């Protein structure tokens, strides 16, 4: 049985831009299990934009990531030892055990998952927090009607890719915004969006061309110029689900110039956090699991190998270098 | 019977800043009444910020004000001739007859009002469109709970003054934002707000001091730095009713820097136009009428005399030179 754990801690608060030096890899002893505890081997780490927000010591919806403590984050793996009545070795589980090789849990927040039809890592993506985030934004905030146009930024990402596919399942026209021709081709051709706009080369004109009937719902992951472009194309009574503002996460100032559209078009704009919709989770996970198992919901993963490469993969994701859900494969 | 009418028309679209030269006073013949028409003498014109938006030829929620046509606007006056079965000479009426001495109406949008307990001009203010606007923002969007804090900008104005008083009637703490010590003293001492912040001298620090428990609801009339200051103080799950963005009406760029608060605090931000809440009007007018008649709802008027002074009074209002509801008294 393993006695040494490896983990990545937050070494210092970023001075605006986070770097690999912001993190530190360290070895720590793995304690013996107490009664009621589970020892889990993390096979997959989930890397998500929200983590960047936690690294700053700002007033936010949760406490900041503590310095010198294991970086937070979603994990998927296998129970290798258990003194907990509900878990046994071999169980596949997802949880929030953070950036480490092994995790010890009292079972709270640890969920056994069925990997017979859905791959384990998908429980960190389309059948996990990112998928449910998309589901809540579409079904609880934007609520697109048939024939309406829904725009989503970071459209090839873990959340955005699901947003557009769910909007299409509700009969809406889905338009993605993504960075570069490769991602845009994927969004259109593989994910089946009606159109995709490359924000690097054609944001404003491209969005205009891709939304001939303007925009009824926007799912915002990016902010800044991307959000401004969407605001300028909104229809009356449009809805904007504000899920992330990744453009401003790394200390970049991000003024919004088209706020006036909220008034002129009588928009509803709502910021949300998926954990605050607990009633939506069972419904969303059941629907998303079935869609993935049956192959009707497509997704893509960017996989970094090895715990030591998590910081670089994370920083790359903040800059859009990932393509689909960013994961770290361990072991 | 009068045969000559005087009116003010929009002479040209403003090149960013509107001036008195943007308008033109002219005399036109008053046509004979056709069957079904009413001739009304306007005693009061209402001047409102929304008119500035209409003067630009921009995509907005309504068609722009036509060039060389009578400026739109709410009016209150007396029927002096009628070939309409529902109106008779001597009736006091409010309507949307625009910036002119006399108006001819087919009766649509013309409402007879009772001036026995509420002065005629109040039907253009607290018991008219501005009052109902405040009522809808408070009761349909912000919905303050007892003990919550509601902030309103342009707090001494026709809408803002009612917002704070209605919020207090619901048990909330009302904090105004206004320009200058005189307006702030009025908002506190006469209108009974819990606090008022002078945006000219103490916007950010003043608002912090005036909102020790932060802000749960904001009623936004101004935009720009005033809105940014409110965004920075919002509590989780706060609501922002966006009623006006007067700071940007006259071509002034108005970037918003604290949009991130919408995400971090999971705010609901909603732009609205009072005419799109038709079901609220009877309820709101009944409540506001009773509050004014019984002296429990205070208000103040800025009165310009003479049609020829309407443009200057209007431009002054856009710059905050009015104090309370801006009216023009005719005749």
Overview of the molecule:
- The structure is a homodimer of 331-residue chains.
- Chain A has 331 residues and is of the alpha/beta class.
- Chain A has two domains: 4-125 and 299-329, Medium-chain alcohol dehydrogenases, catalytic domain (Quinone Oxidoreductase, Chain A, domain 1); 129-275, Rossmann fold, CATH 3.40.50.
- Helix content of chain A is 27%, strand content 26%.
- The first copy, chain A, has helices at 50-55, 129-142, 160-169, 181-190, 199-210, 224-231, 260-264, 280-293, 310-318; strands at 4-10, 23-29, 38-46, 75-82, 92-95, 102-105, 111-112, 149-153, 173-178, 195-198, 215-220, 234-242, 268-271, 301-305, 325-329.
- In chain A, strands 3, 4, 5, 6, 7, 14 and 15 form a seven-stranded mixed beta sheet that branches. In chain A, strands 10-9-8-11-12-13 form a six-stranded parallel beta sheet, with helices on both faces. A two-stranded antiparallel sheet of chain A has the order 1-2.
- In chain A, β8, α3 (160-169) and β9 (173-178) form a beta-alpha-beta unit.
- In chain A, α2 (129-142) packs across α8.
- Chain A binds chain B through residues 53, 59-61, 223, 227, 236, 242-245, 248, 253-257, 259-260, 262-273, 276, and chain B through 53, 59-61, 223, 227, 236, 242-245, 248, 253-257, 259-260, 262-273, 276.
